């Protein structure tokens, strides 16, 4: 089976890295051949896949004015590739890739929905709302199946008009790394110059209203006042001291020297493994990759009840309501003041939960089963 994946771009993100893990897991299966087309550029994920001898190309779509020409170009490329299945991964590629695949005569098309829902206060581009509505109307005609990354994503999309007869849920899958080193041996802690006995609480994700980093800083200020050994690391695209509003809020805590705004990191796995506690304070999510990655690294988590975050952590972490800095501070304080063995036990249980329920091997087999079902139809 030849599967052609179509992505909006190949910069590192949840969907892009999940696709990469899926392809890597299938590399040893001679029944499956994966190819990738990016509507824009190759990013960092494209060369990484090419290094694995996966065929990857980019259309370099930079302007909506060029969209009709690029749609036809994509359809021509699909005809040349002759895929058995076209799999698209997010709203923009669902629409453009789905239409191009139909123009190219492909009958088996899988759409991918990667968020639970979107709202104006999430900083989402206005055209994304329009594209989602168009996809809802086309969902009865273009895709064969619609794969939602989380259970919480399916109801709002079906209320919007997505075909309920085509939906199924396949979560993200993860590679569980070997057991981590002791805190003092972890590179990030050395890089930050943390003193012995420091407690590192971290969060990660791009800088957007959806992540509510302002609320995280407010909660961290309460923790910092009561736990002198606590430090706070935030990593993600544009999460740095160049953000004037975020920097101002950190300075106003009176503990700016204990906050580390790290920006985008290529060593996110090592960064998460260096933490003592991970915090997701988002107001909106689908299936939060970074929580699963922290759990896989054996880090106990505090998460807001958004998307499938609560389903993901189960009884291995703490779940709070979004937009509640005082509640978040209380949850972080409970873990920060717990005995270290208690935190380590929670981390081991979190790691085991990822191994048992969200391994990439199990998720890759779900996708392989979907491909087989489509080929029989």
Portion of residues within helices: 40-55%
How would you classify the helix and strand content by structural class?
alpha/beta
Question: Can you summarize the main beta sheet?
Answer: 7 strands, parallel
User: How do the SSEs run, as a string of H and E?
Assistant: EHEHEHEHEHEHEHEHEHEHEHEHEHHH
The total of beta strands comes to 13
* N→C terminal distance: 14 Å
Low-confidence runs (pLDDT<50, min 5 residues)? none
Q: What portion of the residues fall into strands of 2 or more residues?
A: 15-25%
**Rg estimate, integer Å:** 21 Å
| Overall 3D form | globular
Model description:
By secondary structure, this protein is an alpha/beta fold. The chain has helices at 14-26, 45-50, 67-81, 91-103, 126-138, 154-160, 187-192, 213-226, 244-252, 268-273, 289-296, 309-313, 325-336, 340-357, 360-376; strands at residues 2-7, 33-38, 55-58, 85-88, 109-113, 145-148, 167-169, 199-204, 230-235, 259-263, 277-280, 301-304, 318-320. The protein has a seven-stranded parallel β-sheet, with helices on both faces. A six-stranded parallel β-sheet has the order 10-9-8-11-12-13, with helices on both faces. Helix 4 packs across helix 5 and helix 8 packs across helix 13 (325-336). It starts with a strand and ends with a helix. The model has no long low-confidence stretch (mean pLDDT 93).
Keywords:
377 residues; alpha/beta; seven-stranded parallel beta sheet; six-stranded parallel beta sheet; 43% helix; 16% strand
